[in-house]
Prior knowledge:
By secondary structure, the protein is an all-beta fold. The protein contains no helices and 28 strands.
Amino acid sequence: MPAPRHLLAVACLASLVLPTAPPIHAATADASNSGTPVLASHTSGEVVPFVLPDGAGGAFVSLKRDVASGTPQRLVARVNADAVRDASWNAANVASNDVADPIRAMKLVAAPAGSVWCVADLGAGNAASDLLHRVGAAGPTPSDALFSPLSFFTFFDVLPRTGGGARVYARTFDGVGQALYVGLANATGGGSASTIPVGVVTTGNLSIGGGDRVLAIGTSDGGAIVTLQLPNVGGGSTAADLIAIRVDANGVPVWTPAARVVSNAIRDQFEVVGVSDGADGVILAWRDKRNTSTGDDLYALRLTAAGTVAAGWTANGKAVAQVIGAQNSAVAASDGVGGMWLAWVDGRSGTNDIEYTHLLGSGALAAGFTPNGDLLCGVGGRQTGVQLVSDAQGGAFAV
Length: 399
């Protein structure tokens, strides 16, 4: 992996375990101070920031802020190229009555005319509530407060849509069983929504919370392959399992049956990450508890555009790192030629280090890499919170 030459930008976040809740700050990569506040005033805890480049050298920042009512506010701010808050934005409030959990993330995608689409978890139970808003300097646009589903959403993903719209993919319940919710927003307002039954037998409840997520990876037809975490897929007692559903640009399932099992091995599979394989398939990796002798391991699987397990890979996943000591908090980046860079927090040494590897689309390791991962950073102390992004030249930056 090429040594990082520079960092384009970073966001500074003070520790969230301090006795008093900290504000969120932003800073350029060469800043020597503590950054500047994202909000004009700090009145309560600010958590789960999400950063989106604005295309003009600055960035949009979304966050949640605790309020006295106990329901977090959703806020969107903008910072300029020098990381100073854009006073014309001053953190536009995006409705506060539909946020389920202050610690779960919000996500942004670009919208027309320098605005953004803002999505957050929906926690209104069985009461209709808005899920998606378009936000500009003046705040949310009322006509774009789209999609009022009757079931709550805790985990979701969002992608841009051709023409400046947005696509929302969430796990929900359709009154009968587990389902995939697809919301499609038009750039000019309005849109459509649909609910797709997963079509596989599931039983009981999920045993994993903190590692639960929905992952959507876009396809060339404007759709996506969406990975969901579900309980006991197949009706056994396998705990948290993973399935994938491919939908087209209109939210219609592409595969028949709609869902493919990514892994329903015994015990939990969770914390899924992944990248496109460049051919409308995906390479997925996840934290896996199937082997009690080694603890939490990392497994991976490639699904083709047709929803089949690609040649060179193994049904239910092949081990990427299966050694004593927990492997967790994986992050992924595309290598641009059908493979995946993967980095994670690793406890095999007795403390937290960062390991990494490079998987090819064939399922083999790239030349020079060894089974179970290679050490990326193992200096004294603990290394956590690794992030990874492609360098657009076949390599990646790790932070």
